[in-house]
Design a protein that fits this description.
Blueprint lengths: L5 H12 L4 E4 L6 E4 L1 H10 L8 H9 L8 E4 L5 E4 L8 E3 L1 H4 L19 H11 L1 E3 L14 E4 L2 E4 L2 E4 L2 E10 L2 E7 L8 E4 L5 E4 L8 E4 L8 E4 L8 E4 L2 E2 L2 H9 L6 H14 L6 E2 L3 E5 L2 E17 L2 E10 L2 E4 L7 E2 L2 E4 L4 E2 L2 E4 L4 E5 L8 E4 L8 E4 L2 E2 L2 H18 L19 H5 L4 H7 L14 E2 L19 E2 L6 E2 L3 H10 L8 H10 L7 E4 L6 E4 L9 E2 L1 H8 L9
Parallel strand pairs: 5-6, 7-9, 8-10, 9-10, 10-11, 11-12, 13-14, 14-15, 15-16, 18-36, 19-20, 20-21, 21-22, 23-25, 24-26, 25-27, 27-28, 28-29, 31-32
Antiparallel strand pairs: 1-2, 3-4, 16-17, 29-30, 32-33, 34-35
Helix pairs in contact: 1-8
């Protein structure tokens, strides 16, 4: 079968035929990284030049084009007042989400003719700056969830991010199948839980991390199938333990009654004590693996021949994160059921996609975003059921392939092909993007990358100090819902909403005293970063790749030793 892009293939083959393993310097971070035989194998398979960024820097870069925690009430392009992810300084033109998804909106109206001899990324930037975006990215089946973004099949959600199949949830991020929960990060199948991270199948679990099948836990870390425990670490099938000390049920309940978690001062005192004196010394699993064959990384499940972080049901995924059912993918992030894809992010079923974001059921898409059921499109935004489009302009198949061949070849010569748009092309400020969640940096570093930084208004003189919030929940009445407070950390104004207050009353837990974004960002930043480091198991000395950085002082164990230590078959090393 003859090539549809012969000029590009000839130019790329000249690069790939002589490519050998070597060390490169990341164009953004300046750090050295290796182009290995495996990298070269994927470059040849997927027909792309070798990357110029480390894989985590490439993921950070594209995450700067995805909205983060903060939302704004603004006027859309049609004058409608809507909730949107785009801050007041963004260049983005946007429409109400319902309008954007309706037949009244024609994405091709923004298209224009491509000029193959000019920088394609500059032309794509022009499209991004004129195209009307949806105010939020959400499905239209969700109910009463206007103040949430990136969610699906959810009811009564407030200020949630990447949450799905949930009901009555508040400030939950990257979570699913939740009921009556607040302030969670990466949690699944939980109910009546508060201020947790990386927990699964939990009920009434609070201030905890990495717990599974837990009930009535407080300040617990790494506990599996436990109930009625406080301040415990790495327990398995235990009940009525306090700071890892086994108690009788009556003795445990007596200690718990003495701790008033409806008082925010008590909560913070215990939070600080637990994390400094217990969590900081608790051994950790350096590489969570379950049915992972010939694989390296962390949180790899039911997969074969992969390297990455949080990979499920996949085969031959190299340097990817948050990938489900992927096959033959390279540098992917947040994709599901994708095959033969490169630098693909937050996309659903599809194949042969490169440098794309939020494309669903697409085949052979490049440099495109928010496209659904499309094939063979290049540099497009928001298309549905289209083929052979470039920069949102329709072409015939006979016109399309020679143009794509010329575009790719010119991009390869300029060093553009395989790169994504520069940070300056993002309609989002870095500190209001998903990059800030996974890769938090300071304003100066963001601006050095070329990214915008949005300065949120500080209204301390117009609002009450957070000191005015009653410390004890019992001293709070419904009048607090009408008051606005100034966050002591960020200086930003925040309020409480009625469902949030009702949740805290049901749980008898103190109200928070800082802005929701501060709480959510702090929770995310306290997780180990999306990078892999060489580590050695403190027990068996096995080598592994782990998200836990070398600076982390507590013992790090391999999966096997960690499992044996948790169930008590081996004694874990002490600090």
């Amino acid at each position: 079968m003859s090539s549809k892009t012969p000029l590009f293939d000839l130019a790329l083959d000249k690069i790939l035929s002589s490519l050998a393993p070597h060390t490169r310097t990341c164009a953004e971070t300046g750090e050295a990284f290796e182009i290995t035989d495996k990298d070269i194998e994927f470059c040849r398979l997927l027909r792309v030049p070798p990357p110029t960024l480390t894989w985590w820097a490439a993921i950070r870069h594209k995450r700067a084009f995805v909205g983060g925690f903060d939302l704004f009430r603004r006027s859309a392009s049609d004058g409608t007042s809507v909730v949107t992810m785009y801050d007041p300084e963004s260049f983005a033109h946007f429409l109400p989400t319902e309008t954007w998804h309706s037949d009244a909106f024609d994405p091709l109206a923004s298209g224009f003719s491509v000029k193959p001899s000019e920088s394609f990324l500059s032309q794509l930037d022009q499209l991004w700056r004129t195209f009307p975006w949806p105010a939020l990215q959400r499905d239209l089946r969700s109910e009463n969830s206007d103040w949430s973004n990136y969610f699906i099949s959810t009811k009564n959600a407030y200020n949630c991010w990447e949450t799905g199949y949930s009901e009555d949830v508040y400030y939950t991020d990257m979570s699913g199948y939740m009921k009556q929960c607040s302030d969670l990060f990466v949690c699944i199948n939980c109910e009546w839980c508060y201020d947790d991270a990386n927990c699964q199948k939990c009920y009434r679990v609070h201030f905890s991390e990495q717990c599974e099948q837990g009930t009535d836990l407080f300040f617990c870390l790494g506990c599996k199938s436990c109930s009625d425990c406080f301040g415990c670490t790495n327990l398995f099938h235990k009940s009525y333990c306090f700071l890892n000390e086994q108690l009788t049920p009556d003795a445990y309940r007596e200690r718990l009654r003495a701790i008033d978690l409806s008082d925010s001062r008590v909560v913070e005192e215990w939070r600080l004590k637990i994390k400094q004196e217990y969590w900081s010394k608790a051994y950790r699993c350096g590489a969570h693996m379950q049915n992972a064959e010939q694989s390296l990384g962390d949180n790899i499940t039911n997969s074969k021949d992969v390297l990455g972080i949080s990979i499920w049901d996949s085969e031959r995924v190299f340097k990817g994160i948050l990938t489900v059912a992927g096959k033959d993918c390279y540098y992917t992030d947040g994709s599901m059921q994708q095959e033969r894809c490169y630098s693909d992010m937050d996309s659903l079923p599809g194949s042969e996609c490169r440098m794309t974001i939020w494309c669903c059921s697409c085949i052979d898409m490049e440099y495109s975003t928010l496209c659904t059921n499309c094939e063979h499109c290049f540099g497009c935004v928001g298309l549905r059921h289209k083929k052979f489009c470039i920069l949102d302009k329709q072409y015939t198949e006979e016109e399309y392939w020679p143009l794509v061949d010329a575009i790719r070849t010119a991009m390869l010569e300029r060093g553009e092909y395989g790169e994504f748009l520069p940070y300056t092309s993002s309609p989002l400020a870095y500190n209001n993007s998903a990059a800030m969640i996974f890769f938090p940096i300071e304003e100066q570093e963001a601006r050095q990358l070329g990214a915008r930084w949005y300065t949120f208004p500080h209204e301390a003189t117009q609002n009450e100090s957070a000191d005015a919030i009653p410390f004890k929940l019992a001293d709070t009445d419904d009048s607090i819902l009408k008051r606005t407070f100034c966050c002591p950390v960020s200086g930003r104004a925040f309020r409480f909403v009625k469902p949030e207050l009702e949740f805290h009353r049901e749980m008898n837990l103190a109200l928070p005293r800082v802005h929701p974004t501060v709480r959510r960002s702090t929770r995310a930043a306290q997780q180990f970063p999306m990078q892999l480091h060489p580590r050695t198991c403190a027990m068996c000395k096995t080598s592994m790749l782990s998200r836990i950085p070398p600076s982390f002082a507590a013992p790090v164990l391999c999966q096997e030793c960690y499992g044996q230590a948790v169930i008590g078959e081996k004694e874990a090393p002490k600090m």
